[in-house]
Amino acid sequence: MKTEALLLWAAVALYAAAFALDLGGGIFRKSRARAIAWRVWIVGLAVHLCAGIGRWWIAGHAPVQGVYENSLSGSFAVAAVYLPLAWRLPALRRALPGLLAVVLLVLGNGITVRDAAVPLEPPFRSGWLVVHVAFAWLAFGAFLVSAVVAGLQLTTARRGGAGDRIAVLDDTCGRLIFFGFACDTIMIASGALWAHSLWGRYWGWDPVETWSLVTWLVYGANLHARLTLGWRGPRAAWLALASAVTVVITFFGIRFISDVHTELL
Amino acid sequence: MIATTRVAPAVLGGAVRRALLRALSSRPAAMCVMGAAALALGLATFLPSVDLAANPQALADRPIARFLVEHLALQRLVEGPAFLAAIVYLGAAIGLSIVHRLRTFVRRGAAAGPAGRFRVERRFVVDAPVDAARDRIAGALRRAGYRIVDTAAPTIEGSRGTAGFFGSIAFHASLLVVLAGAATSAMTRTSGEILLAEGFPAPLVHSSFHSIQHPERLPQWPERSLTIRDFSADYSRTGTNVDFALVLSLLRGGAVERESVVRVNHGMAVDGLDLALHRYGFAPEIGAHEEGRERLGAVGALQLIPPGREDALPLEGGGELRVRLYPDFTLRGGTPASRSPVPRDPVIEFDWVESAGDIVASGRVRLGEEVKVAGRTVRFESLNYWASFLGTRDDGMWLLLLGSLLGTAGLILRFACPDRSVRVHLAPRAEGTSATLVAATRCFPALHEESIDELVPGLGTTA
Q: A261: closest CA among A183, A182, A190, A191?
């Protein structure tokens, strides 16, 4: 338990340091500071992964039960979705402070309510758990990173950045939304099938289910705006940013209204 | 992808109706309906959950809140005509869109040159005569995944992403399948809860179920009954239940027809009825006598978890026996407690309450023993478990499963195979061939342009 906590706090410290270095490097135009920030956050991600594995080891199951474990997994999913993209498209590295702010907020939400590691309760002992939760976090990561990329796109455009770079950011945002939408669909479908075997009904209109559907509809509309109406540029970016509100409500806000989704478990 | 304007207007005559239909079946209209549905659902979850039927005076001093709860509460909203109309509208729009897109696809052919919204043009020179240049470019395009169609020289046409197109069709068709599944479910679904105590078979008849929805849809099971045995529960070190399982047997005329180990998430199906293990508890067998008269002799399926929780059994002639169970009895500072949730040394603490509400006798009795207090005898005969099962029959589930699989496969295809088309026009020149490549896509043009820029240097020298 102690090692896992140490690892987690080390990851938080590394993320915070990378955030400060990258932001400072951007403000004072020090490219070396930004290069160091990039390396520091990757080390932070590796330490975050170790903290997750540590939790898995202690709890005896994937870290998917309770607020703390879900924050640990969710923040990792955001970072894990961003890393390969930024690796391939260096233009995305400018979004690192925004990404780290999101990761630290999600992680901070879990650290404040740190739960003890407990074995899985009977309802969670299902093959659907991994499918449902893994795709939920992938969708969460993809949607939040798409919002961060949309923010970078708008900032770059405001500063008069190169058109081709903005266009690549625009496309990347669209592809992230597409990927997130596919993951969200699988998450909802697997959740419905699991709910049928567990509760004898596939859909119950509880607040979490309802907001998952709201998110799915909002991002479906996003995709239609891009793919069929040809929305691009600032209009599409603002829509992606606004849509991220539904993701935050679904994953974090709704538990302030009701815990019925997990209470039923 | 949703909605089309070409098919629906032909059905109805009249310019106004045509214009109205065109507006309704346009893509922005479908998107607006999606957005409105999302907004209404989202807002409805924030409304307070007040049962106005049970409490008619609730929110009387807040008329706006009362109006919103009355008309826009989530359950009321999703069962209301406006929401159902929105679903029907979106379903119709999706259906029309699929028909329109398939018709366009058949008319255009699979590779009819650039038709996408976003175009990119590149010019280059190939150091070979037209025929050789044509073969070289067609080969390179094929290697890049384009399907080349035979056209007369000097033009090459190709496209890729046909699988993506059908993926999109499959995804939208899956939404219709899911809607059909939901409709079938609404028409056929039935559910109820059946409670079984170890060693006491319950006939599989409608009256054995409680909290039953649509009993007329439940099938009949002549001469069948259910029983459970060998219940086991596992607990963590902190006493939290982590697993429970039992053997569920289906009996016909008293003989075992089929039996299965059942646990949460792993139920058993009986003639179309899915039985899912839901919850469990202790079922103690208790006898109570007063001056030679039996006041109680029953197995009670009681809510006695966690240890010390009180439940009651009715006494014959009025009154009740309130009981608390300590599965692994101990005394902590003189107070009864349980070392663990496992019934290693079960003890029942009881209060004998007469109809007037007076406690006339209290005491403790160990499993297999009896105790006499104030002329009243209580015997703790045996301790078993009870388990509750949710029985569900839903003929729409297979459609929902099919829709889920189809939708997932469709989205994966659509994501992995974006539709792209290319047309290369060749013209002879003094040394070699001049080529003009026009590539088009419906989405992600910058990434598409990158892929074209990676492709062109392999075809010739940029002009």
A: A191
CB–CB of A122 and B241 under 8 A? yes
Confidence of residue B67 (pLDDT cuts 50, 70, 90): confident
Partners of B364 in beta bridges: B349
- Are the CB atoms for A83 and A36 separated by under 8 Å? no
pLDDT of residue B21: 74
What is the spatial distance between Cα B351 and Cα B353, in angstroms, rounded to a whole number?
6
DSSP string over B64-99: HHHHHHHHH-HHHHHHSHHHHHHHHHHHHHHHHHHH
Nearest to B144 by CA among B421, B440, B430: B421
- Among A227, A235, A246, A258, the strongest candidate for a mutation testing the B interface, having the largest count of B CBs within 10 A, is A227
Taking each helix axis as running N to C, give the angle between helix B27-44 and helix A207-227, from 0 to 180 degrees, rounded to the nearest 10.
160
Distance from the B73 Cα atom to the nearest Cα atom in chain A, whole angstroms: 11
DSSP state of A122: G
Separation between Cα atoms, residue B198 and residue B194, nearest integer Å: 13
Would you say B421 and B159 are in contact if contact means Cβ atoms under 8 Å apart? yes
Cα angle for residues B72, B76, B82 (degrees, 5° grid): 75
- Write down the residue that tokens 């509309």 correspond to: A221
Per-residue tokens: B332: 């902590």
In whole angstroms, how large is the CA radius of gyration of chain A?
Answer: 19
Q: Distance between CA atoms of B2 and A227, rounded to whole angstroms?
A: 11
Residue in A165, A168, A184, A265 with CA at minimum distance from that of residue A223: A184
Residue B122's pLDDT is 92
CA dist., res. B41 & res. B49, Å (int): 14
Q: Which two tokens stand for residue B3?
A: 């909605």
pLDDT at res. B463: 58
Sequence-ordered list of residues with C-beta below 8 angstroms from that of A27, at least 6 positions apart, any chain: none
Determine the Cα–Cα distance for residues A46 and A38; give it in Å rounded to an integer. 13
State phi, psi for A105 to the nearest 5 degrees: -65, -45
- Counting one residue from chain A and one from chain B, the pairs whose CB atoms sit within 8 A come to 149
Predicted confidence (pLDDT) per residue in B369-401, tens digit: 999 999 999 999 999 999 999 999 999 999 999
Q: What is the pTM of this model?
A: 0.88
What are residue B122's phi and psi, to 5 degrees? Answer: -135, 140
Evaluate the omega torsion of the peptide bond into residue B154 and state whether it is cis, within 30 degrees of 0.
yes
Q: Which of helix, strand or coil describes residue A185?
A: helix
Q: How distant is the Cα of B344 from the closest Cα of chain A, in angstroms?
A: 22
**Mutate: best of A88, A169, A201, A202, partner B, most B CBs <10 A:** A202
CA distance B461 to B335: 93
- The C-alpha atoms of residue B390 and residue B400 are separated, in whole angstroms, by 20
Q: Do B404 and A178 make contact, defined as CB atoms within 8 angstroms?
A: no
Spatial distance between the Cα atoms of A171 and A180, rounded to a whole number of angstroms: 14
Considering only the beta carbons, identify the residue of A182, A192, A224 that sits closest to B27.
Answer: A224
DSSP secondary structure code for residue B346 in this structure:
-
Quick: pLDDT tens for A190-217.
999 999 988 888 998 888 899 999 999 9
Half-sphere exposure of A64 (CA within 13 A, CB side): 19
